Amino acid sequence: MSGIRVRTRKDLRAQRRRRPPRCLGHLTVAPLWPMHGANLGTLLRTCDAVGACMAVPRLPWVPEALARGNTLRNGACVHWVRPMAWLAERQERVLGVELAEEAIRLADLPMAGQPTVIVLGHESTGIPGEALDLLDAVVEIPMIGTGASLNVAVAGSLVLYKLAGFT
User: What start and end residues bound the annotated signal peptide (predicted)?
Assistant: First the structure.
């Protein structure tokens, strides 16, 4: 028998960083061209974990997708936006997650020292060209497998954790 003790939920809650409810306002993830509803709920749960908000497009199926996928049911911070207009108004640092020349490798991405928006594109077509022009920088998640990219929930979660300083 090993000496490993699994922490209980009570242990984890006692050790968790204290923070105000909902989002801290420093990170916003923006899956502005979603393809699969299940990814939105999963990403919303990551937002809760790191104290981030989510900006989503005003599409008829999105509210139900968020409700179905968010198993916490805690009323996480969600902003309903018109993608291009919302992006054009951003004063925060705006990072896109995309395969592009001169992209910052995820491992080299520093913790967010200022309010930051993470833009996620469509899973098949990526971030539209007109939106790429509104980004301050692009983050690339290196892969060695045969796929070209990760799904929106996984990619967004990795970048959120890195920017929040949890990795």
Answer: none
Structure-token pair, residue 11: 């242990």
User: Could you give the number of structural domains in the chain?
Assistant: 1
User: Tokens 């199926």 label which residue?
Assistant: 61
Structural domain range at position 36: 20-164
Note the pLDDT tens digit of each residue in 3-12: 788 888 777 7
Which residues, in sequence order, are bridge partners of residue 117? Answer: 28, 94
Dist. CA 94–CA 136, nearest whole Å: 5
Going along the chain, which residue ranges are E strands?
Answer: 27-31, 53-57, 78-81, 93-97, 104-105, 116-120, 137-140
Q: What confidence score (pLDDT) does residue 72 get?
A: 61
Has this prediction a pTM greater than 0.70?
yes
